[in-house]
Write a structure and sequence with these properties.
- Helices cover about 30% and strands about 10% of the residues.
- It contains eight helices and seven strands.
- Helix 5 (about 165-175) runs antiparallel to helix 8 and helix 7 packs across helix 8.
Length: about 240
């Protein structure tokens, strides 16, 4: 006969379930291949440092050099917008991508580098789910062109999760259930990290102000300041 006890009576609750399950966050919460566990987070898969092949985005023909692609474009697709190569520094790694000039940073991170943490939710710069850090500032990647980011330092939630320094922040988010469906969680974590970098002892009101641009459809707002302030104490070595 099936156990008719509630999850809590059976020794299960949401927090323990998430911890025992490793809070796998592939695509849905913090990013590809990352987990919120007691073990150090693993770095994301290697991203390309130098382009070795160039594919036409219109007919998918492959070329060994960018100049060959340019020549093909001029003859086969006259009048169409020519793709460009852009060098980005993402999570401390240099990478080169072939994109169309109008591509946003969010689209480039997801489709060219496989970094799915920055979500495309509203695609209007209104929800904060696509937040990344560029040169120390929290920025909406869905309204930022990738070509504008060349030469700048970009941090995504994958890089934050792979840095042991910010493990207390991830642990605290898990402990205080500051997430439900998880889709908005990467943006909140990135904004929280950016806050702690500038203000290692934030108040609840300062946390709310820092997260004002992040929207959570599940309504976990009260948990975020608690999680961030507790993480701040741990990171500063409080008992």
């Amino acid at each position: 006969m099936a156990d008719e006890r509630t999850g809590k009576e059976a020794g299960l609750d949401r927090r323990n379930f998430l911890k025992s399950a490793g809070v796998v966050v592939t695509g849905g919460t913090l990013g590809a291949g990352l987990t919120l566990t007691t073990e150090p987070a693993k770095a994301s898969a290697a991203i390309p440092t130098t382009l070795t092949s160039f594919r036409c985005p219109i007919c998918s023909a492959d070329f060994a050099t960018f100049s060959a692609l340019q020549g093909h474009f001029g003859s086969a697709h006259p009048g169409r917008v020519m793709p460009v190569t852009t060098k980005l520094q993402v999570n401390g790694k240099e990478c080169e991508v072939l994109i169309e000039p109008h591509w946003t940073l969010q689209r480039t991170l997801q489709y060219k580098l496989g970094l799915t943490g920055a979500k495309q939710m509203c695609d209007r710069g209104a929800c904060g789910s696509c937040t990344v850090i560029i040169d120390g500032r929290a920025v909406l990647s869905c309204t930022t062109l990738a070509v504008e980011c060349e030469g700048k330092k970009i941090e995504t939630v994958e890089g934050i999760a792979a840095d042991p320094k910010y493990k207390p922040l991830l642990d605290s988010y898990c402990k205080w259930d500051a997430m439900q469906c998880g889709y908005c969680t990467p943006g909140f974590v990135v904004s929280a990290k950016n806050l702690l970098d500038k203000n290692p002892r934030p108040t609840a009101e300062e946390c709310r102000q820092a997260l004002a641009g992040n929207i959570c459809c599940c309504g976990t707002y009260p948990r975020h300041p608690t999680a961030i302030m507790e993480a701040a104490g741990v990171m500063k070595g409080d008992a």
